[in-house]
Amino acid sequence: QVQLVESGGGLVQTGGSLRLSCAASGRTFSTYAMGWFRQAPGKEREFVAAISWSDTNTAYADSVKGRFTISRDNAKNMMSLQMNSLKPEDTAVYFCAAKPGEISATTRVYRSRSNYNYWGQGTQVTVSS
After folding, report:
1. DSSP 113
2. Collapsing DSSP states into helix, strand and coil, what is residue 39?
3. 57 burial class (0-12, 13-18, 19+ CB within 10 angstroms)?
4. Is 53 exposed, middle or buried (0-12, 13-18, 19+ CB in 10 A)?
């Protein structure tokens, strides 16, 4: 019951930074766990980062830990992914995703694609050498 739209992708050189945003529709945004995934040509979509709908618990793929930071602003129905120290292997289409939360698991984060109910259209990130 939510629509997601990513923005902020583009071309950046190795070592540079980008900030992706995901705008969500719906008044229940604050009760959704959120995540970022990416898909490179010829590859399966892979987990990047996730954030819970309360207590701001986060999880990151090992490949981006220490370089990427996920955050959310529930008042603005917005989720962001700050990407620093970018590498060519970060080149991919990045997707935001949402999963309805529940009161008994307010701090839970989700790494699997199968957990998410809603997906954005994706935004291209290209990192040149």
Report:
1. G
2. strand
3. middle
4. buried
Question: Do 13 and 19 meet the contact criterion of CB atoms below 8 Å apart?
Answer: no
Specify the pairing of strand 10-13 against strand 123-128: parallel
| Cα-to-chain-centroid distance, residue 48 | 7
Could you give the CA distance from residue 47 to residue 39 in angstroms, rounded to a whole number? 9
∠ at Cα 124 (99, 94), nearest 5°? 20
Chain-centroid distance of CA 59 in Å reads 11
Q: What is the end-to-end Cα distance of the chain in Å, rounded?
A: 40
81: closest CA among 7, 29, 3?
A: 7
**Two tokens, residue 38:** 């990416």
| CA pair distance 10, 83, nearest whole angstrom | 12
| Separation between Cα atoms, residue 16 and residue 122, nearest integer Å | 20
| pLDDT, tens only, 3-42 | 999 999 999 999 999 999 999 887 666 788 999 999 999 9
